[in-house]
Amino acid sequence: MRQRTYLSPTLRDVPADAEIKSHQLMLRAGLIRQTASGIYSYLPLGKRVLRKVEEIVREEMDDAGAQEVLMPAIQPAELWEESGRLGDYGPELMRLKDRHQRDFVLGATHEEVITTLVRDDVQSYKKLPMNLYQIQTKYRDERRPRFGVLRSREFIMKDAYSFDISQEGLDASYDSMYDAYQRIFSRFKLDFRAVEADSGAIGGTDTHEFMVLSEIGEDTIAYSDRSTFAANVEIAPVVASYEKSDESVESLEKVETPNVKAIDDIVSFLNVSKERIIKSLLFIVNEEPVLVLVRGDHEVNEIKVKNLFNKAIVELATPEQTKEHLNCEIGFIGPIGVPNGIKVVADHAVAAIVNGVCGANEKDAHYKNVNLERDFSISDFNDLRIIQEGDPSPDGQGVIKFAKGIEVGHVFKLGTKYSEALGANYLDENGKSQTMIMGCYGIGISRTVAAIVEQHHDENGLVWPVSVAPFDLHLVTINVKDDDQRNLGESLYTSLKQNFDVLFDDRPERAGVKFKDSDLIGVPIRVAVGKRAAEKIVEVKIRQTGEMLEVHVDDLEKTLQEQFKKLV
Ligand code: ATP
Ligand code: MG
Questions:
Q1: What is the tens place of the pLDDT at every residue in 519-557?
Q2: Which numeric CATH code is attached to 45-237+402-453?
Q3: Cα–chain-centroid distance for residue 542?
């Protein structure tokens, strides 16, 4: 490709509204341009990277036996009504009407469409299992589109859906996608972890998120420093055990604590450690008030509360609701003397607190020397807190550390949720009708490009892994006005094109501009034709290492092949 007429507009300055490196570099290297908030165009370099990423995903999906299809972006709203999601999905779902005022949505995901497709065309167990995938544009009206294509409103996703006749079949389909994802993200040269995620069931292993480790990630991963255990902090079970101290039990005392509400304020005002404080939070669980207790240095995990009450809707009580149920301000609530209708649940750590501190359910007052059984009782203790760094790893090996991650992929066992709602059945061996068992598997193609950039750049620009680089070689004629340089550049372009994807900088620009652009674009190997053109000697630079070699053109192909071998 000749750069003189190539649409690769580079920018020297960092665009003001781009906060993170990948967004800045994708704009600066001329990969993308914003068309509207969260909506992007891909310029030729960006499109080439997308295509490489898609090709690797396609190869691995095909290899795993999945079949490629292409479904429409526009979907009839009735389908979403049938599955029961039209209301649930909320404002993230983009909606539109056609000229006959019929309701449509822009596909945010494709469970409804694929399930009806399979329902209508697959009737017998003999056709199953089946796994169908597509690489297609999705629409989600995100509340906060940001970070360029990392969280956008229109984006490209690979989504696959498996259909099985048994739970074991689903497990096998899931494992095969899990393994394909391991290969895919390894081929992108990403430092990633497959982490257990929230599926509604505590500690379940039927959903994993593939997380690229990165400071700018929105998710926090809890991982073991000694084993492969990794889970989203949202769901990681806590297996810590707590020793009850043998100090003597003191008598209960109510103390005045004017305006002392926050845990840190209680610590300094009453001169107690956080571990002694019984932190009490009032939640509204399916419209019923529930008081949740954790230790002062711990945080309540709302997903665990939700799961304790069978996936109920859980919300923190507002100041008004707190007043209504406990007749008190939020900062002073506690488990002593709670009205009968309010259920009290507690995290395991609370059971070990001796002579604790809690709110007195009265403005500007707390209790000291609070002791379980004597002062209040709890019917059962549960794991209700968020895991912390230093906690023992749930698999019994090592301790927990935290890392930030960007979710690039997600595998999920759906079960019969959609097949039941939409009637995707098949006839089994005995001619009996059964419901298909489904799984779904997503990869954010465009987000993956941004994640690769986050992990593969330096202060001068992009440093593409060979597998996804827009070109293999950047051939640069340093001075196109020089006949030797121009002629050698042209002849190398013709010959190198046979075996490599070549971006050819034939622009009449200054050397400094050309080299800066070349580093910014980050093609793995640069071949510069300069002062020694008359001797047929060119300079080869490896982008990743900065290594430079002077090579005679007769040895060029061989040298390049060797260098590529080292890079992959
Ligand atoms: P997130 O928690 O980041 O919003 P999600 O759980 O909504 O993601 P899924 O519905 O599982 O995502 O979609 C599959 C994949 O699509 C995600 O793993 C992610 O890589 C990608 N993806 C989701 N939302 C976006 C977005 N707004 N922009 C770019 N990629 C996205
Ligand atoms: Mg989302």
A1: 999 999 999 999 999 999 999 999 999 999 999 999 999
A2: 3.30.930.10
A3: 31
CA–CA gap between residue 435 and residue 115 (Å, rounded): 11
Of all ligands present, the nearest one to the C-alpha of 450 is: 1
Name the residue among 472, 495, 482, 474 with its Cα closest to residue 530: 482
Atom number, ligand 1, closest to the C-alpha of residue 218: 3
How far is ligand 1, taken at its centre, from the CA of residue 444, in Å? 6
Quickly state the pLDDT bin for 205 (edges 50, 70, 90): low
Is 15:27 a contact under the CB 8 Å cutoff? yes
The protein residue whose alpha carbon is closest to atom 29 in ligand 1 is 151
State whether residue 8 is helix, strand or coil.
Answer: coil
Report CA(141)–ligand 2 centroid distance (Å): 10
| Closest ligand 1 atom to Cα of 150 | 29
**Residue owning the nearest CA to atom 12 of ligand 1:** 410
Over residues 363-389, the pLDDT tens digits come to 999 999 999 999 999 988 999 999 999
| 133 CA from centroid of ligand 2 (Å) | 20
Q: Which residue is associated with the tokens 């609370």?
A: 350
pLDDT at 201 over 50: no
Second CATH level (architecture) for the domain 253-382: Alpha-Beta Complex (3.90)
Q: Whose Cα sits closest to atom 23 in ligand 1? A: 444
Length of the chain: 568
Please report the pLDDT score of residue 136 as a whole number. 98
Residue ranges, comma separated, of all CATH 3.90.960.10 domains in the chain are 253-382
Which ligand 1 atom minimizes the distance to the CA of 159? 14
CB atoms within 10 A of CB 520: 19
Three-state DSSP class for residue 434: strand
> How far is 281 from 561, CA to CA, in rounded Å?
64
What is the dotted CATH code of the domain comprising 471-567?
Answer: 3.40.50.800
CA angle, corner 293, sides to 290 and 295, nearest 5? 165
Probe target for ligand 1 pocket from 53, 152, 410, with the most ligand atoms within 8 Å of CB: 410
Give residue 296's identity as a one-letter amino acid code. Answer: G
Measured CA to CA, the distance from residue 444 to residue 449 in angstroms comes to 9
In the chain, CATH 3.40.50.800 sits at 471-567
- Rounded to an integer, what distance in angstroms lies between the CA atom of residue 298 and that of residue 347? 9
Residue 89: its pLDDT value, please? 85
Range list for CATH 3.30.930.10 in the chain:
45-237+402-453
Cβ < 6 A, ligand 1 pocket: 109, 140, 142, 151-152, 155, 157, 407-410, 442, 444, 446-447
Mean pLDDT of 128-132: 98
Cα(155) to ligand 1 centroid in Å equals 9
